[in-house]
Design goal:
The complex is a heterodimer of chains A (465) and B (260). Chain A is built from 12 helices and 15 strands. By secondary structure, chain A is α+β, with helices and mostly antiparallel strands. In chain A, a hairpin with a 7-residue loop joins strand 2 and strand 3. The relative contact order of chain A is 0.08. By secondary structure, chain B is mostly helical. Chain B contains 14 helices and no strands. In chain B, helix 2 runs antiparallel to helix 3, helix 4 runs antiparallel to helix 14 and helix 12 runs parallel beside helix 14. Chain B is elongated, with a radius of gyration of 31 Å. Classes of the chains: A alpha+beta (465), B mainly alpha (260). Chains A and B meet through helix 5, helix 8, helix 11, strand 10 and strand 11 of A and helix 1, helix 3, helix 6 and helix 8 of B.
């Protein structure tokens, strides 16, 4: 690549690891995201504001085709380097003198490549010649893992997961062949062995789901129907997982997450944040195996989109107590791949914003919203909504009701009694969490305060926050 | 055949297993098309495809049932609510210094306040077995308490025993030894001067904890803050704990509008 020659957008796309990487870089191609931008005949540089406390230092050698970025991504080039190149290709990077760090990097590359007589802009001098597309390890930083090793490791992991999904589907067929009345289903070992196999296959989320399913056996008069429905959902995940490469990107990401494909937090935090005033709509704790799981449901004031934060606590560990139900917090939410509900928090304003009345939907509208979410991801086990409804009894069962209909309430005497007490039988705005077994009240939004009534972790299990 | 009818047939077939019963034929429509797309010779595999598609369709297509009749509301109660801070203090009392709970509930009654619903539910569940405390909670909850119990039988009293009226409205005495009894009515200066030096001199230790707690739970509210300061100054563990009790009781009374 000749120096001084500005790249075209097509040339930038050609060095990207995938078209999706270019798409991920696009939102970063606005000058507002960058500081200390500059370009000379050899390099581009800039500081990209991401989710971390510090912006990412990005530099690109556009003459010898190499990049370097302080972000945690393992993709080469990362989206920050691609965004810098795109911005430059569109004339958005001003000319300037390279800062010392960029000059040192370029000089170090030249020196290692044995280029003689190159520009000596660094204090240590340098050489010239050669080119590279790999990062440049410097003495003060650990070298990144070899890319081929990473690919091999990933391929191996994909193969193991595919084997696990195939085995899961075969196991499900066996269950339908022998029938749900088979006494083997009443033995926990029947389920636990499958779960252990799925853990081996790196499908931890499916393993957890299988263990939860074991708890449904014999749990109520309709347990056969509930178990059958869950077996069907497991089949959907297994089938979708085995066809992962053929699925559209967001759906593939959702299936991978449902199967247990791990995504590094650093990679999630490197994504473009969803910045909003987040209403802390509800909290729900559940025990999963030997871990207490806390879900915090957040609703964006501007977008109306939901986000979910997860925290985990083993015995005597603490759950995240930093989110108070009923408050509004301005924060950056970084979603897991596929536009998932699950997210991590990046930057967050320390002080809550003034409380605004949350908009309560009718039960019919809430059902539509929940149904649409389940249609997109049939394996969803819970989904939130804010509704305005009154507690009532229909056919001997507690329900929420309004003029559009009723939704059955899941078990939970204390939450139900608090909803009754706070409403006095009249309509009240509340956050509910849908599950296949009914809706669960998580929070009541009263005119002067919010009542957090979601299921709470056993205090003798989790430690003090 | 509706989707629910087909689902019931699937459940029945799944109980027996496809070794003994053929999977039901799906009703014509999109579901049948989806299942037919999955070309599988094995009945179990065919049925699994049908179960997956039907589960997804039923969950995604869930809709509300018909509207229900709303409940008759409880009789009106014109008393003001306790402040949320007072409820938060009650929760701390229950967790850390339950000796103060009787006074908290009785003060709520004396001040003409009513307990908010979240605390009322917890109080009703907490005092199902104690007739006297149960009666106090019923008074503090007013018509709402009776209404809640009607609708949530799990909150009903476990005992049918009636509580004596004077016991319900009076603070129970707590044992305080004669040498400390005069401090129950002492002024702040006397209280602090008599109590605090005993810790430094080793006169009070763990065996005295219960009676000292009783003393601070029943002494005059006006002495609490001075007593807490004097106890803190001793830097003795037991005295520091008692100072915490004194401050919590003072805060409780301020929040409920008794002490200034």
């Amino acid at each position: 690549m000749a120096a001084n020659e500005r790249w075209s957008v097509e040339q930038v796309a050609a060095v990207a690891p995938s078209p999706r990487a270019v798409a991920a870089a696009e939102p970063l191609t606005t000058p507002a995201r960058w500081a200390a931008l500059g370009a000379d005949e050899r390099a581009l540089w800039g500081r990209c504001r991401g989710s971390g406390a510090e912006p990412y230092d990005t530099m690109v050698d556009h003459a010898e085709v190499a990049w370097r970025c302080s972000c945690p991504s393992r993709k080469l080039p990362c989206k920050h380097a691609l965004a810098l190149l795109l911005l430059w290709a569109r004339g958005g990077v001003p000319d300037g003198a390279a800062p010392e760090s960029v000059a040192a990097w370029v000089a170090g590359r030249d020196r290692r490549a044995g280029r003689a007589g190159g520009r000596d802009r660094s204090p240590a001098g340098g050489g010239q010649g050669g080119a590279g597309t790999e990062p440049d390890p410097t003495p003060d930083e650990a070298p990144l893992p070899d890319r081929d090793d990473l690919d091999r490791s990933r391929d191996d992991r994909v193969a193991r997961m595919m084997e696990g999904l195939t085995e899961l589907d075969r196991w499900l067929e066996d269950r339908l062949r022998t029938g749900l009345a088979d006494p083997a289903l009443a033995r926990y070992a029947t389920w636990d062995q499958l779960a252990a196999r799925l853990v081996d296959a790196r499908a931890g989320a499916l393993a957890n789901r299988v263990r939860r399913l074991a708890g449904l056996v014999g749990g109520g008069p309709d347990w056969h129907a509930e178990v059958l429905a869950e077996l069907g959902v497991l089949h959907l995940i297994a089938q979708a997982g085995r066809r992962l490469p053929a699925l559209p990107g967001p759906l593939a990401d959702a299936v991978a997450a449902a199967s247990g494909w791990q995504v590094r937090q650093a990679d999630v935090l490197a994504g473009v944040p969803d910045t909003d005033d987040w209403f802390v709509a509800g909290r729900s704790d559940t025990r999963e195996d030997r871990i207490e799981v806390r879900r915090i449901w957040l609703r964006g004031a501007a977008t109306g989109r939901w986000g979910m934060l997860l925290s985990f606590a083993a015995y005597r560990q603490s759950l995240d107590e930093s989110w108070t139900v009923g408050t509004v917090v301005r924060a950056d939410l970084h979603r897991y791949p596929g536009g998932a509900l699950r997210a991590l928090v990046g930057e967050r304003e320390p002080d809550p914003l003034p409380l605004r009345d949350p908009p309560g939907m009718t039960l019919a509208d809430a059902s539509d919203a929940i149904g649409a979410a389940i249609a997109a991801e049939p394996w969803l086990e819970r989904y939130p909504a804010i509704v305005t409804a009154a507690p009532a009894v229909a056919d001997g069962r507690w329900v929420l009701t309004d003029h559009t209909g009723t939704l059955p309430l899941a078990d939970g005497t204390q939450a139900r009694a608090t909803v009754l007490g706070a409403s006095g039988g009249r309509p009240v705005t509340l956050t509910i969490e849908w599950s296949p077994w009914g809706v669960r009240p998580l929070a009541l939004h009263l005119p002067d305060r919010a009542l957090d009534v979601g299921p709470r972790a056993d205090p003798s299990f989790v430690g003090a926050a | 055949m509706t989707l629910d009818d087909y689902w019931r047939e699937l459940v029945t077939a799944s109980l027996l297993g496809t070794d003994r019963r053929d999977p039901p034929i799906p009703p014509p429509g999109p579901l049948a098309d989806v299942v037919a797309d999955a070309v599988r010779a094995d009945p179990a595999a065919r049925m699994l495809a049908a179960v997956g598609a039907t589960s997804a369709a039923r969950r995604a297509g869930f809709s509300p049932g018909p509207p229900a009749t709303v409940l008759q509301p409880p009789a009106a109660d014109g008393r003001p609510w306790c402040r949320p801070a007072a409820v938060a203090t009650w929760r701390r009392i229950v967790a850390e210094w339950p000796v103060l709970e009787d006074e908290w509930v009785l003060t709520v009654l004396e001040r003409g306040l009513r307990v908010p619903p979240d605390a009322l539910v917890e109080l009703l569940a907490r005092h199902r077995n104690d007739a006297i405390r149960r009666a106090r909670v019923a008074l503090a909850g007013g018509p709402m308490a009776a209404w809640l119990v009607d609708h949530v039988p799990e909150l009903a009293a476990a005992t049918g025993r009636a509580a004596p009226a004077d016991a319900v409205t009076s603070l129970p005495d707590l044992p305080v030894p004669p040498e400390l009894a005069e401090l129950l009515t002492a002024d702040a200066h006397t209280f602090a001067r008599r109590l605090a030096p005993g810790f430094g001199a080793g006169a009070y230790g763990a065996p005295h904890r219960a009676v000292l707690v009783n003393l601070l739970a029943r002494c005059r509210p006006a002495v609490l803050l001075d007593a807490a300061d004097a106890l803190d100054a001793t830097h003795v563990g037991l005295a520091l704990a008692l100072a915490d009790l004194a401050r919590l009781r003072h805060r409780m009374l301020v929040e409920l509008g008794v002490a200034g």
